[in-house]
Amino acid sequence: MAGHPDGQKERLIAALTDAVVESVDAPVESVCVILSEVPRAHFGVAGQPAHAATAPRAVLQAFLIAGRTDAQKVRLVEALTAASAVIGVAPGVVRVFIQDLPNTDFGLGGRTALALGRGIGRAALVAHR
């Protein structure tokens, strides 16, 4: 939800980056954090629009090159949830979505992850699950 001061957002970006690096062994330079603030009037909780008294919420999406283990993903969910405390979000209301992308569907520096020798492909991803 919108309304957090810039200093809090800076700490959140650092905490989310650290969470990814430590949980899935990602190189820090490959971690990108994008904050999208949603006005309270555009956010609903339990079928009702959020209001000034509604506790802060966080919805986090992590896009990963496929190939991380289930244990790494569990650590990532835990670490991202904990990082959200930086902006005062209680763990019980944090939502984390992880999406595995085959190495043919993910690009870095103008090359696919496959071309860079990273991650696993679509066929292996199906077998991996």
How would you describe what is shown here?
The chain has a two-stranded antiparallel sheet. It has helices at 6-24, 70-83, 122-128; strands spanning 44-45, 48-49, 58-65, 94-101, 107-108, 111-112. A hairpin with a 2-residue loop joins strand 1 and strand 2 (48-49). It has one domain (6-37, 56-128): Macrophage Migration Inhibitory Factor, CATH 3.30.429. It has three helices and six strands. By secondary structure, it is an alpha+beta fold.
User: Per DSSP, what share of the residues sits in E-state strands of 2 or more residues?
Assistant: 15-25%
Please provide the count of β strands: 6
Q: State Rg.
A: 16 Å
CATH homologous superfamily caption: Macrophage Migration Inhibitory Factor
SS element count, helices = 3
Total domain modules: 1
Write down the CATH class: Alpha Beta
Oligomer: single chain
Mean pLDDT: 92
Low-confidence stretches: none
Helix residue percentage: 25-40%
Which second-level CATH architecture applies? 2-Layer Sandwich
Largest sheet: 2 strands, antiparallel
